[in-house]
Inverse folding.
């Protein structure tokens, strides 16, 4: 089951806003919203399909050979809209713009008998699609990704062919159709490349490919460097040291400008993180164990779940989801987990599904024939409204809702690491009154926290008869904030 939102003296509302160069609060999700889907959903993509600004969902089903479209209501809810056939045993789906019009398109993979295919579907802007082109690939086509491989400004497609040990690339014509297939080996015929990531590994401006080779003898990932014309170099393998590398995602996890990769290892129930060297190579893996809480991660993605500017990791597992919070230096906190009774999560995607500015998660639940939606509640205050918000933008940009009878507001700032190390003692951690009795509902602090440091902020209302309380809206406080701030000598006058 989902973890309850944390509510302590360090994470409550009009409270307290946190601006940190290290993770500040918890990552929390609401209980899963379960949307009935077709038979054996395997992959899911989230984007606005009908132009109403709400993020919709499309999911493909292995057993029923179709895709279902669910249109969003903008608050995290979804309604079935239509289904259409996408070929035998569909494996993957992505949403993208293939023809240059304002409407999102789709690419889906399928596995016809002794073959493989990828199909383009051109969006009509209302949640429906027209067939673009069916492209024949090699046998066992699984994952699909898109990028401009040859620098012509048009999106091209790359797919993995899991039973042939290669990838297929198709150069886009810009109208939803594509040129001839170009195959590149990424391992032996039995290496089973199941997933891929497209990124520029060596800084030459050309897109390269990293594949997770699930059945490779050395349990490796492989990389092929792009030549800038849609072709690729000879593969080079990098062992993961885990078992059955099933899925791979690229990102800059140590924030040095060089792409890194993270791999979900199905059989060993581990995540391997390999930092890139900027020249097409990788450092030895660092392993994170999901056991005993979760097993068999099938998919991995990266997303900034807590809005600290760092890419966190999410895996879809047999039994629920796991997330690893980034420390910003290429390492991650130990995995945390959200269980799903009888769930078997396959493909996943991330997007702001309810319009609150926080990244949410959606999973194809193969085991329950459902789509599982997890709304991110990391920025919420439990059962309370959060009147105070903070958006890092060159500094701390605070905003708050008006309080009844207020004629102004006080804003104070303090030392976040000291607040934590002192057990929430505001008498020690309060630093400065930034603004006293200002009439505005926003305040910008231009200061930035130093590396591995952070700030906290409190706001209280000022009325005609006196000042309010820093304890307002907080709940469950171990001790009064007012007393601590007053004892600090740094309260607003």
């Amino acid at each position: 089951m989902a973890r309850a939102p944390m509510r302590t003296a360090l994470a409550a509302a009009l409270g307290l806003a946190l601006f940190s160069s290290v993770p500040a609060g918890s990552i929390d999700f609401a209980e899963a919203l379960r949307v009935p889907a077709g038979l054996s959903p395997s992959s899911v993509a989230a984007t606005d399909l009908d132009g109403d600004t709400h993020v919709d969902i499309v999911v493909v089903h292995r057993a029923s050979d179709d895709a279902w479209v669910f249109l969003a209501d903008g608050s995290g809810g979804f309604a079935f809209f239509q289904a259409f056939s996408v070929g035998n045993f569909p494996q993957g789906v992505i949403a993208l713009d293939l023809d240059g019009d304002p409407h999102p398109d789709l690419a889906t993979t399928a596995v016809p008998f002794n073959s493989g295919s990828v199909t383009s579907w051109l969006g009509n802007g209302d949640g429906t699609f027209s067939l673009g082109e069916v492209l024949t690939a090699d046998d066992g086509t699984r994952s699909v990704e898109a990028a401009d491989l040859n620098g012509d400004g048009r999106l091209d497609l790359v797919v993995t062919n899991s039973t042939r040990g290669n990838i297929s690339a198709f150069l886009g014509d810009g109208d939803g159709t594509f040129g001839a297939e170009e195959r590149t080996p990424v391992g032996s015929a039995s290496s089973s490349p199941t997933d891929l990531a497209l990124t520029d590994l060596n800084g030459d401006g050309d897109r390269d490919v990293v594949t997770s080779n699930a059945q490779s003898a050395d349990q490796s990932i492989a990389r092929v460097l792009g030549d800038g014309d849609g072709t690729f170099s000879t593969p080079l393998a990098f062992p993961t040291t885990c078992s059955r590398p099933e899925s791979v995602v690229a990102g800059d996890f140590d924030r040095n400008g060089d792409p890194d990769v993270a791999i979900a290892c199905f059989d060993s129930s581990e995540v391997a993180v390999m930092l890139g060297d900027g020249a097409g190579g990788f450092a030895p893996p660092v392993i994170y164990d999901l056991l005993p809480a979760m097993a068999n991660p099938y998919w991995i993605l990266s997303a900034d779940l807590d809005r600290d500017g760092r890419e966190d990791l999410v895996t879809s597992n047999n039994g629920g989801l796991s997330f690893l919070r980034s420390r910003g230096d290429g390492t991650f906190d130990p995995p945390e987990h959200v269980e799903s009774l009888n769930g078997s999560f396959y493909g996943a995607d991330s997007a702001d599904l309810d319009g609150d500015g926080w990244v949410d998660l959606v999973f194809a639940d193969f085991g329950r024939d459902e789509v599982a939606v997890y709304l991110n509640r990391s920025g919420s205050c439990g059962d309370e409204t959060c009147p105070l918000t903070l958006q890092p933008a060159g500094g701390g940009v605070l905003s708050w809702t008006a309080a009844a009878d207020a004629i102004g507001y006080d804003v104070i700032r303090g030392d976040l690491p000291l607040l934590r190390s002192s057990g929430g003692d505001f008498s020690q951690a309060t630093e400065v009154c930034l603004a006293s009795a200002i009439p505005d509902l926003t305040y910008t602090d231009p200061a930035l926290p130093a590396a591995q440091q952070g700030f906290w902020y409190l706001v209280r209302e000022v009325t005609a008869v006196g000042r309010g309380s820093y304890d307002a809206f907080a709940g469950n406080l171990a001790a009064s904030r007012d007393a601590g701030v007053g004892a600090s000598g740094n309260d607003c006058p």
